[in-house]
Every structure is written in structure tokens, then in C-alpha cells.
UniProtKB/TrEMBL annotation:
Name of one Pfam family that matches: TK
Protein name: Thymidine kinase
GO biological process: DNA biosynthetic process; response to stress; thymidine metabolic process
Species this chain originates from: Amborella trichopoda
A GO molecular-function descriptor: metal ion binding
Chain sites annotated for binding substrate: 180
Amino acid sequence: MDVASATSFYGEIHVIVGPMFAGKTTALLRRVRAETEMGRSVAVIKSDKDNRYGLNSIVTHDGEKMSCWAMADLLTFKTKLGFDAYSKLDVIGIDEAQFFGDLYDFCRMAADYDGKTLIVAGLDGDYLRKSFGSMLDIIPLADSVTKLTASCELCGKKAFFTLRKTGDTQKELIGGADIYMPVCRQHYVSGQVVIEAARNVLESQQIQEDVYLEAAPLSSQLVPS
Ligand SMILES: [Zn+2]
């Protein structure tokens, strides 16, 4: 038995987290390429929710590109790829992993029973700095966890958080630099205050407009022109 097969019965799970624009996908692809160069068989999966760069490829913010499987969930990957092809895989990269509800079960099975090495990249927190999807659930399963940082868009210090620049409040809002920016703690806190204030102003203007529109026909009756 050679070294590769002797070490491949049980797999590994390596997790890469951080805010947007922290180079998570770049780190994932670098890692996957290194595995390929060592002669290991690799597949990369991403969520089909993010189709910003086309469905069948992963593109980093620096423009690096790799072909991938766009999936709605992970547990059907084995069937979609085919059992034979799946059994020959050594390494599975998963990008935007926060979007997969079955992340925990897939990673556990793939590493514990199928001997796969998993490299999993995703957001640890959402724009409110709350746990995003199942991303944090897999940390107890992991061999290693790396938290990457970006540069604060406002001061250049290390950025740990993703600030949403718009007033949208749904948890999953796919977008890039038009909607999000990486920020340090200070600018996350002050940014949230600014955005909250802007939202309140917009909402109160909306209320005034609604009141004005409702009042308009009445006032036109009462006030002679
Ligand atoms: Zn800052």
C-alpha cells in the first residue's frame, strides 16, 4: 500500500471563513490547485444561488477562474457526479458554503466515511454579524479553521466584517461591491449608525409622501385654487 492510499481512508476538513473581499475564494482555489499539482483528483462546488459570474465557474475578485459544479444542495452531488467519479475524487472544494443547508451532513459523511479532503470557504457572519447558514456548525468537525481579513474600505485597517451599504434587510442578498464593503470594527459600528439614520430618514420621507398623497385630493377640495 502506498502512502497516498494509506492516508486517504479518512478525510480532512479545512475551513476558510472571513468577511467579503477577504480572499476566501482565492485561498480556496490556491489550495485546490496545490492538491491538483500533487496529482490528486479535485472537484469544486459552489452554490447555484450566486450566479454573478456564470454558473459553471468560480471567479475570484482578482479575476482568477476555475470550473465548478453549481449545486442547490450538497447531498445530491454524489448522484449528480456519478458514484464512480465520486469514488475517485480525493479533494472537494466548496465555495460560498454558507448557502448550503446540508453542509454539516455532507462534510461529515465525505470526510468520515468517504475519505475526502474538504476545503470549505464561506462567510462566517452575515451583514448583521450573525452566524451565516451552517458555516459555523462545521467548525467542530474541522481539522483547521482559518479566518481571513479584508482591508477596511474606509481606513485601510484590517476588516473583519461585511457592511451592507443599502437599506435591504433580507439575510441573503447576493451582490458585490455595489452592496457590500469590508470594514474594521470602528467603521462597522459607525457605518451601522449612518445606515440606520439614512434608513429612518428615507422611511419618514416615505410616510410623509404617503400622507401627502392621501391628503392631496381632500386638500384640493378644501383649498380653492
Ligand atoms: Zn476602518
